[in-house]
Design a protein that fits this description.
Blueprint (H helix, E strand, L loop, with lengths): L1 H33 L15 H4 L1 E11 L5 E3 L2 E4 L1 E2 L9 H5 L1 E2 L1 H13 L3 E2 L2 H8 L5 E2 L2 E8 L2 H14 L3 E5 L12 H8 L3 E5 L12 H19 L5 E3 L7 H9 L4 E3 L6 E3 L9 E2 L6 H6 L8 E10 L17
Parallel strand pairs: 3-8, 3-14, 4-5, 6-8, 8-9, 9-10, 11-12
Antiparallel strand pairs: 1-7, 1-15, 2-13
Helix pairs in contact: 4-6
Length: about 325
């Protein structure tokens, strides 16, 4: 009798234990289902104070032309007027130098759609110095002479696209009728338009005396530097006219590059005082415009980290340090 009671007790204990274990499993399972799923990420914080300082981190990937190329494919587009073209019959030269605002806007749209990235000569300087890559499909947009429509027509279209450009200014024409004012030149310089020199009064340097050439080169450079408050390093030969002596004087005057009206998209440091351009005149189609851009250079993808903080104001915009190749 006692044996049977003891056996029954043992049986009851085993059954109770099994029940409690089952109940415990159900509670654990229930908690596991209710617990939020968290990804298993193993990473060190970039900044121990990031939570307290309210910083945000952004990774971006960019296509760039790696530094190291001695020769680059870089279309340097040459514009003059951005205005309604005059009659082809009565002003053939004016017509060939004029691109309508609508056509200019369409050309900038094409550059944007096809992944071209406008740069200025400070960017090209940094590339050849080995301090920064160029963006994929780089292009330089240049506008000669400093006409009034540079500010009233071209500049707003460039700004709307977020594009840089280079304006070759005839310093003696600043503020004259039909030309940009000094205040307009300064405003453009502060907002993505690199100001460069185009002599004092658009003289034909190839037919000028040494004294006249140095006046055109040096005085223009100094006037523009006083106006914008920083070095002016780039130059364009008026009407594309130059000689070997003129090139030597451009170097002596302190310029770092000079562009011609000859056509090509291939450039190097060695020929930087005879860089060629692609003329954009009146009347060409978008297909003709696109054909003049040439074939893009090979590019690669890089990843960049950008840190933004709500508490720390961003640093003021500043010009890149000017690097000399000489």
């Amino acid at each position: 009798m006692v044996s049977s009671v003891r056996a029954a007790a043992i049986l009851l204990t085993v059954a109770a234990t099994a029940y409690l274990l089952q109940l415990s499993d159900q509670v654990v399972t229930s908690r596991a289902v209710q617990a939020p799923l968290r990804p298993a990420i193993s990473a060190q914080p970039l900044d121990a104070a990031s939570a307290a300082s309210n910083r945000e981190y952004f990774l971006s990937r960019m296509q760039v032309v790696p530094v190291g190329r001695r020769n680059i494919t870089l279309p340097i587009l040459m514009y003059h007027y951005v205005r309604t073209p005059p009659s082809l019959k009565t002003d053939w030269l004016g017509y060939k130098l004029s691109v309508s605002p609508a056509d200019f806007n369409a050309q900038m749209d094409l550059l944007s759609r096809h992944g071209f990235h406008p740069v200025d000569f400070n960017d090209v300087r940094a590339y050849f110095a080995g301090t920064a890559p160029l963006p994929a499909n780089p292009v330089v947009i240049t506008l000669d002479d400093g006409y009034a429509d540079l500010y009233t027509s071209a500049y707003p279209i460039l700004a709307a696209h977020g594009f840089k450009a280079v304006a070759y200014i005839v310093s003696g024409f600043v503020g004259q009728p039909r030309y940009a004012s000094a205040a307009q030149v300064v405003q453009m310089d502060e907002n993505g338009i690199e100001i460069a020199s185009h002599t004092v009064d658009h003289a034909n340097l190839a037919r000028s005396s040494y004294a006249s050439v140095m006046h055109e080169l040096v005085d223009s450079k100094l006037r523009l530097e006083r106006l914008v408050g920083h070095p002016v390093l780039d130059f364009a030969y008026p009407s594309g006219q130059f000689s070997a002596q003129v090139v030597s004087e451009v170097i002596r005057a302190g310029y770092d590059t000079a562009v011609t009206t000859m056509t090509s998209v291939d450039h190097s440091v060695a020929d930087r005082y005879l860089w060629t351009r692609v003329r954009v005149g009146g009347g060409e189609s978008l297909a003709e415009f696109a054909q003049g851009l040439g074939s893009p250079m090979p590019s690669t993808t890089i990843t960049a980290l950008d840190i933004e903080s709500a508490e720390i104001p961003p640093p003021p915009l500043s010009r890149p340090t000017l690097l000399f190749w000489k």
